[in-house]
Amino acid sequence: MSDSPTPTAAQLGQIQTLVDSLASRLQRSVQVDTPAFYAFCSSPQYGEVDNARVFNVLHREPNPEPIPWLVDNGVQDSREPVRLPAHEELDLLPRLCVPLWDGERLCGHIWVIDSPELSDADLKVITSFREPIINHMVARDETFVRRVAEMREITRDVALGLDGSLAQAVDNNFLPRRGTIRVHQLTITEANNAHQEDAPERLMMELLRFRRRRPFLVTDNHDGLTIIERSESLDASQLLFDEFQAAAIAVGARIVSRGTSTMNELSGARNTARRASFMATVAALQGLESLTWEKAGAWRLLLGWELTRATVTALSPAASALLSEGSETLWRTVMEYLDNARNVTATAERLFIHRATLHYRLEKAREMMPANTLDDGWECTCLHAALRLHAALESTS
């Protein structure tokens, strides 16, 4: 487990004292935040104010919209202060960012409004506060470490459907009491081909540093995160994932795909988590950002199968014969024919070919497959699933 820290209450008080002192000397607003831009401490208001500061004060969390722009300007990589220009569309005043590094780990940032422009003397004052703030931020907080361990354990218990685990999660304010329970599996990689290998854990740690307005459960696994949340609507779920996307950008991680399944009395927790994981795999295979079990169609029939070329052969000997003996044009024609419920007119229109050409291709395909394959609905189901899997594998190779 990571030793990534978060300040204790006493340490927060000491950071707040430093922030207030710095703001008073500069006569400007100052904020210290985490690498994902969640505020640790903010000073009283001095001078001009912009949308970013107002949003932080009102919502107790960062506005996700400016985060990609901030990252693009190097605030996560630079070891030196970064001057950011005003951004009219985002309603941001010019500001100075002083990254706070403890060795090779970014602890957070100091932010100061840079209007009117800070002098060299001001910069010296700001940088003189950097080391004492870092010293308080890196002090290890056993409470946070215990919370991470507790979150991992209870998330896995709920995902496994252990008796009483869901009630325990609700009683400990890890999940709301009302709403639909959804399990999400996120596939996570390093952003920008970074050489680190702990992107899922870094993102989980950042998500757990501050209690959100709506609680959720999260644990990491070898290539992603399992998240369990309870919300009244799909729109509310999407708002939660907007926060996750912003946090991922901030910590240098990338959410490749998301699979989602809704928990109900028929599926149970264990099956729901299994379905969500499978949906993430299917989404990644098809190049989709997200896919829900409810909208996955016949892909659900392949739950439990490995999505490989061997599965194509095992599912349908007819597909195997067509793929080995026929051309790409033939197997794609058959797939389109099945996609259109064996409707000749619709298939010809989709392929922009004459009906006679379609009939010719289908006859050629029939010759390569076991007799009556295209006339047997049950066999066609296997053939269709196998060809769709083959097409998805082809697109990723």
Automatic annotation (TrEMBL):
Domain PucR C-terminal helix-turn-helix residue range list: 330-389
Superkingdom, natural source: Bacteria
Name by which UniProt lists this protein: PucR C-terminal helix-turn-helix domain-containing protein
Species of provenance: Corynebacterium casei LMG S-19264
